[in-house]
Amino acid sequence: MATEVESREWYIASYAPIGVPNSDHIKLRTVTLSLRAECIPDNHVAFQILYVSIDPYMRTQLSGLSLPQIPLGQVIRALGIGKVIRSKDAKFSEGDLVLSPFFPVAEFGVMPSNLLQKINPADGVSLLDHLSCLGLPGITAWVGIEKIGNAKEGSNVFISAAAGGVGIIAGQLAKVKGCRVVGSVGSDDKVKLLKEECGYDEAFNYRIETDYDAALTKYFPDGIDVYFDNVGGKMLEAVLNHVNHGARIALCGMISEYNKVWTEREGVRNLLNMVGKEVMMKGFMVGSYYNHFEEIIKEMEVHLKEGKIKSKHKIYNGIESFLESLASLFSSSNVGKVILQVAS
Amino acid sequence: MATEVESREWYIASYAPIGVPNSDHIKLRTVTLSLRAECIPDNHVAFQILYVSIDPYMRTQLSGLSLPQIPLGQVIRALGIGKVIRSKDAKFSEGDLVLSPFFPVAEFGVMPSNLLQKINPADGVSLLDHLSCLGLPGITAWVGIEKIGNAKEGSNVFISAAAGGVGIIAGQLAKVKGCRVVGSVGSDDKVKLLKEECGYDEAFNYRIETDYDAALTKYFPDGIDVYFDNVGGKMLEAVLNHVNHGARIALCGMISEYNKVWTEREGVRNLLNMVGKEVMMKGFMVGSYYNHFEEIIKEMEVHLKEGKIKSKHKIYNGIESFLESLASLFSSSNVGKVILQVAS
Lengths: 344, 344
Prior knowledge:
- Two copies of one chain form a homodimer.
- Helix content of chain A is 23%, strand content 29%.
- Chain A has helices spanning 58-63, 136-148, 167-176, 188-197, 212-219, 233-240, 273-276, 293-305, 322-328; strands spanning 4-12, 26-34, 44-54, 77-87, 97-104, 108-112, 117-118, 156-160, 180-185, 202-205, 224-229, 243-251, 280-283, 313-317, 337-341.
- In chain A, the strands form three sheets. In chain A, strands 3, 4, 5, 6, 7, 14 and 15 form a seven-stranded mixed sheet that branches. Chain A has a six-stranded parallel sheet with strand order 10-9-8-11-12-13, sandwiched between helices. Chain A has a two-stranded antiparallel sheet with strand order 1-2.
């Protein structure tokens, strides 16, 4: 084992309060990490990063608007999977696979071991499932469909950005619950994927069917009971013209709105519809459901092993592809969970 | 007792899908009602109308957009209080005071007795309290503050149209629960009323403090936990810039929006704030809480008798004032519950 490694890492060079972050905002640099035992503090672990999960919420730490604000010059952090290469904690051994939401977006790192969780993929579960179906996307899908959407047998469920990391699992989970599920996506390939591989009853390409009201009239002749909203804006407005009495709207994210200053965002003009139809709309952050994570992961693992839910990944290769992988989240170009593979 | 009476009544001459209904849409006519025993069907009661409750929801039946659509030429119906003048039901006697949500907006009427409820105002309760604090406005206030708003000791509660029939009770109820309460209203007189007579901690005139964001910064240094929304539009948007984590928004009505076609309504551009702050927003119709009416009225009666909640009324006199009283709902000119006094 080398006594030191060169590690490339991405750091925040300047904040990107609006717009998609670019190479002015985040930059790659090389740092040297000592792997000598005396340089690694007690209860710390040195690791190599294998995979980094690329998610829309990362936008926040790059905006400079998060509280606490992340100082300029700091490495960007993300959920990922790594492999232990040196351990100063008896609970971790060289070669262990570990998961952490606080990994640096880098090739190597050293972290307190209490921020790491060991993973042992079971039969029928791949390592990457821990970043999608059994990770935050899966848990997020569960919270939106079950806890907020209260989707039941026969519910009419609509999911936007339905081929995204969360949407693709949300739709499959709703099918497991016996719902009728329709998704909106940004390409015909995704329409095909959802219908042929993910069990969606219908899907449509919002770039082709640009009259959202007409599309929802066509795909929801019986109205919408549950809307899993990943996009906000005009699609949310259209949905509010098609909701059934007592409908539930889970606001998971608003990909159409993140990169705009708020006064330039799309106004939703028909919230009045929520009154007469007694619609409930709730925003949520998956972290608030932390106490339920264990039971949720347990349930998702059952669906996964029974083949009822499949993870879909879009892999970007090499630490140098981080910026490209991040930008892809906002361009409709991906199918499934975006993952940066740093090493194998 | 006369054997017949002339009764003036208001009917729908043409629909008013948008805008404030005017004399083109609703008209007064005189009908003759026979009071002879043989002309009143069994289990029916003839009555004189004393009071009619004037509420924003009446807008719907005049729009022609309600389901079922109310046919042109039909008398308008409303919640009111009447006095029995002849009865073909042993449970009702001449002189009984009765309440019904289905009274014609008229001077006299005949109705099935099962649509009537006898009222006996208790000590400390006036007849008009049955149309405000103990009526739909009081129940509506309770549902918004308790059931949806989940207002607790110390919650920061904001109420718009706070001097209106519902708002004025909602604020007093929130004070009973130990909340800090601020209201927005359309005149300085109303600001004074709320602060001096209704126990509001603060109130502001949105026609003077036209920068709602600045007003909310000033009046809610600790943010908003519960918003009882009676107006929608720009005020709702401003509130979403000041909500605390986990805030609840009860959508009771949107007085700023009723009279516009939906594409001309104010768009709310910052719903994205609901995601990170996990805000819950729910529209409601008081009728859906019918099973709770009895317990709610019981609770409100306690507050009323203890002097903790007072009803405020704006009385319009004479059946001919109906149109004026209705238009007043949309003009910010009233304080408290608008009531049409038809007879005394």
